[in-house]
Specification:
Largest sheet: 5 strands, antiparallel
Number of domains: 2
Structural class: mainly beta
Strand order of the largest sheet: 1-2-4-7-6
Helix content: under 10%
Order of helices and strands: HEEEEEEEEEEEEEEEEEEEE
Strand content: over 45%
């Protein structure tokens, strides 16, 4: 019964935060958060650089094509130690939209997934050839691939003796515990902050520099926020939220020294009696 209760809480918490968990998060207004670049002339959007963990499958990236009929004809690598293959092609008769960064909002006809397998550590180049609907070569795009021991920044993120997973609810019966974040060598830890909700999609920093400190969980299940439908709206709408269980968000900001990008990860601690 206790396990069933925990499962219900996890499902509830995940559904509650789903709109926020998978949204892109910028640490600063002009911080580089992705290596995606859009070639508007040729209608191609691809990453210019990415990480691949050695000897692990399913390390992939998507190439988006905004011209109808265009397709990825081939992908070649600079070394036999890096294997690349087009594994999924999603072609549509109408466009689909995707927001890849603050500056890149696309309507695409073709999304091609390229999967990599690295046999050894190193820096490689993948060359992607794009052709039009008549089979004529349009352009080539190069992706720099960094093959490292691990493409994930964290060695571990823990609360007490419990290891945490980003982007989901981590249930705990402990009201306090040591928060510890350890990262891999090619990443830099920029900040570890304890937050509170200001609305359904926004976190406000409550306590800074929380790494390797004792974290006392938020025991309140209630918060209130207000909004207006437009700037000209004279009325103010007030929303009262009362969670099933207290939630303490932890925000971790990491800098990738290879890709030169800054990425934010949110960890959610849900207190369960």
């Amino acid at each position: 019964m206790k396990n069933f209760k925990r499962q219900l809480i996890i499902v509830f918490a995940f559904a509650l935060f789903a709109g926020m968990l998978f949204a892109p998060v910028n640490a600063q207004a002009k911080t580089k958060t992705t290596t995606y670049q859009y070639d508007k002339k040729n209608g191609v959007c691809n990453k210019t650089a990415m990480r691949v963990a050695i000897n692990r499958r399913y390390e992939s990236t998507d190439v988006y094509l905004t011209k109808s009929g265009d397709y990825v004809a081939s992908v070649k690598t600079s070394s036999p130690n890096l294997i690349a293959k087009v594994t999924t092609v999603n072609t549509t008769k109408r466009t689909y939209s995707i927001n890849l960064s603050d500056d890149i909002l696309l309507n695409y006809y073709n999304r091609s997934e390229i999967t990599f397998l690295a046999r050894s550590k190193g820096t490689y180049t993948a060359t992607v050839t794009i052709k039009d609907k008549n089979g004529k070569k349009k352009c080539t795009k190069k992706i720099r691939v960094y093959a490292t021991n691990d493409s994930y920044p964290f060695v571990s993120v823990s609360y007490g003796k419990q290891y945490l997973v980003s982007g989901t609810a981590n249930t705990t019966s402990k009201k306090s515990g040591k928060l510890s974040v350890k990262i891999n060598p090619t990443f830099k830890l920029k900040s570890v902050d304890v937050c509170k909700f200001t609305d359904n999609e926004t976190l406000k920093v409550f306590k800074k520099k929380a790494n390797n400190k004792i974290l006392k969980l938020n025991m309140s299940t209630k918060y209130q926020f207000s909004y207006k439908w437009s700037e000209s709206d004279t009325s103010e709408n007030i929303v009262d939220v009362n969670y099933m269980n207290p939630v303490t968000p932890v925000r971790v900001v990491v800098y990738d020294t290879l890709l030169k990008t800054t990425v934010t990860y949110n960890f959610y601690l849900v207190y369960v009696k």
